User: Fold this.
Amino acid sequence: MFVKRVAASSSARYSGVNKYYFCVSPGTKRLAHKRLDHLMSTNKTRNELKRLERVYGKLSGPFEPSKDDQRLRDTITLKVRPGLEFEVDRKILPLVEACWKSGILVLQSDAWSSAGTVRLHFASTTFADQFLTNIFADGDLYWDSGLKTQALSNWHELEACIRVTPEDWHWEINFEFVIESLDNSKIVDAALIYLNKTRAEIDEEMKNEPSVIVRFPYEFSDLLTRRLCSKELGRPPPDGRIWDVLPDLSCFDPSYFF
Assistant:
């Protein structure tokens, strides 16, 4: 591509203005069209992902969008055990795997978000409570931002660390995905075998419990994964932390849950 100066029109010439125009080679035109096609394709993919988000809540896992829809995501197969295999977002595979290995049934998960968040969908409040207990039973967590700050006068720079507080995360309860009503019985059976649970135990422990959805910053993923991995063996029982973060349920009849 090159630029050529040409004579201006009479009115432009009168005011002393010169005109310029671009001479574009055929190769440059093809490149421009290729970039335009890529841009249109990217926008189409984003629009499709937004549609998926509306329909499925940005989730993938044992209960997931169709294979045609999943092609839009950067996913990889997580093989927890024979018969318990499903697609997860590649960037959070270690996190989801650590959840399962530390005794947490994750129905669905997602890392695609314009807000930069991870979304996990736990099968019940009990599993969500186990998630929090596994992470915080050993004390508070602090995420190293990689930044330094001059917070103290007459002192050297300090590393800026952020305390991980689940109260600041976004929590939801979901009455549509209730564990005893899930229709993919093979997946549920394989999950219960892996977690060393029976359907009778699930019915007794989690009868009518809603499932739980949480969103938190993606940057916390590695930190949470390490804590979860430390609880593969000898994990503490759920200690009720989940009730400090869930939305207020006072409007519901307690007999529905207990």
